Amino acid sequence: MKFLGLTQWVLAALLASVAVTASPVAPHDLEAMLETRSLEEIRRSSDDYLKFALKRHLPGLDFKIPRSYGGYISVNATNSADERQLYFFYTPPESDVGDDDVVIWINGGPGCSSMEGLWQENGPVIFPYYAANTSVKPYLNPYSTHKAAHAIWIDQPGNTGFSKAGLEIQGYGGIAKDFSGFLVNFFKEFEHLQGKRLWLTGESFAGAMIPYIAHHIYEHPKYYNNRGINLKGIHINDPSWADNTYMEQLPAFEYAKHYQKTLTITDAELAKVERKIKKWGLNTFVEDHLKYPPKGPIKAPSGWNSSVYDVWGNLLSFWNGAHCSSVYDITAKCPSPLDPLGYPLDAASPSATNIFNNITGFKAAIGADPNRTWVECTSDNWVDIGEALPQASVMPSVIENSERVIIGGGDRDVLLLTNGSKLAIQNMTWSGHQGFQVKPSGVLRTAAGQRGTYHNERGLTFIEYFYAGHMVPQDDPAAGFKTTKYLLGQIKKLSNPSNTS
Ligand SMILES: *[C@@H]1O[C@H](CO)[C@@H](O)[C@H](O)[C@H]1NC(C)=O
Ligand SMILES: *[C@@H]1O[C@H](CO)[C@@H](O)[C@H](O)[C@H]1NC(C)=O
Ligand SMILES: *[C@@H]1O[C@H](CO)[C@@H](O)[C@H](O)[C@H]1NC(C)=O
Ligand SMILES: *[C@@H]1O[C@H](CO)[C@@H](O)[C@H](O)[C@H]1NC(C)=O
Ligand SMILES: *[C@@H]1O[C@H](CO)[C@@H](O)[C@H](O)[C@H]1NC(C)=O
Ligand SMILES: *[C@@H]1O[C@H](CO)[C@@H](O)[C@H](O)[C@H]1NC(C)=O
Ligand SMILES: *[C@@H]1O[C@H](CO)[C@@H](O)[C@H](O)[C@H]1NC(C)=O
Predict the structure, then answer these.
(1) pLDDT band at residue 13 under the 50/70/90 scheme
(2) Atom of ligand 5 nearest to the CA of 303
(3) Does residue 36 line the site of ligand 7, with CB under 6 A?
């Protein structure tokens, strides 16, 4: 069913009030129902989305979380009982602000749980890193996405985080089909969200998956529109959207120069690499090729590839000895903080010390399977079948079909470089032109001052964050939040010295 028009709402409301058993079309007032019945009773007796309602007191927290829903929904659009189910957590907006928009967040990997985004980046409650010999101090996040939209975090593809799946998924196409199947079932359960403006957002490897998911939905407009899925655009931060030649190799030397002190690279080490790569022009590649408008195709130097000389790897080898370095945020300080999701950050094996596995009752309280050991990242759920990354395949058409697309880059991330996304944009043709025609110069500001730059042309916005690494909303929460509001069209520019407007 599509979004109901006003007369249909009135009609449906009338029908609901005469027929006692009719399923409701408008959101329930759960708080009012809770005055007379327990949440358990409501969940047991409900055949609609209230069965996903969560308690507002979670074990381990001494404050109430905003009203939220969590649980499992199948990826099979024609069989909601299919065992392949994705875990989701959903927090509606607290006011009318954002009631027209649904924002979904997914993390990367493939196989990294979106619980990282939910509980450490842009969810209603943050479990921050903490210092040794202290304890983690969770807090309510003033920059949670639910302050701007209906916010949903999904563990996908199957077998990621709390999600369950039997089969190995084939390629981005397989990921897109499963995810879209989940969406169809999700919007069936949460009927009042049908027709609202939908935005897919995420970071890292989500930058490879999200454009393919969007492409799949845009390729079948009638099928998805009829099911209330009204996709408007995407937002990917520090994304694996283009090949590593762009994202690591070509901009590596200028990155090392820019952050030479932070990366503890000596003048002699830098000079040694420069002597090696000068003949290919790789010491000044960004400066020489990043032009607005572009001067033609941007080609990697002939005779060079990363097997001939690994620029990025060689430069990083000088830095690896440095104390407390993190590839996700090269400015991380000593001593290394502890991560309540389990250390090391992307462990592929369960850690005894994380909030999900060691706060008794936490998993059940958020609607996750208590028998499942949560792991931040797993790798046994996806098969790479060699599809081209979005920059060289689906991205132009995704931008052309969207109201707005944002690509972001946190400069302190040494895994996927901001200058790499800039080069990749300048070598991509969408809406009739190659690259941006005008040099990005818009100022991204928050109450803390300038935090980066941004630029928008022909439906694509690029944002550079000066004070963030790989996890933008975690590293610069106000800047990350403003960007979400900009995506949704709630603010028209990013230059106001304010955290919200
Ligand atoms: C969905 O479930 C039906 C019934 O079990 C099955 O025939 C179909 O193959 C499944 N579809 C997918 C995409 O797995
Ligand atoms: C913190 O605790 C660890 C043991 O868990 C100990 O080795 C270390 O010395 C302590 N550090 C401080 C500053 O007390
Ligand atoms: C990006 O490239 C430019 C050269 O065009 C350079 O001046 C700048 O320092 C680079 N920035 C980073 C973060 O690498
Ligand atoms: C830029 O695009 C052209 C095609 O227009 C392609 O031949 C070239 O390899 C691309 N550059 C990079 C660095 O991938
Ligand atoms: C890299 O370049 C070398 C030398 O030209 C060539 O032998 C090799 O096949 C290339 N590797 C890739 C992955 O293209
Ligand atoms: C989780 O477990 C670790 C040890 O296994 C303990 O140090 C930590 O306090 C526990 N955290 C919570 C919130 O229970
Ligand atoms: C967890 O395992 C127990 C014991 O095997 C079982 O009784 C229970 O139903 C399981 N819970 C879920 C949610 O699968």
Answers:
(1) very low
(2) 5
(3) no
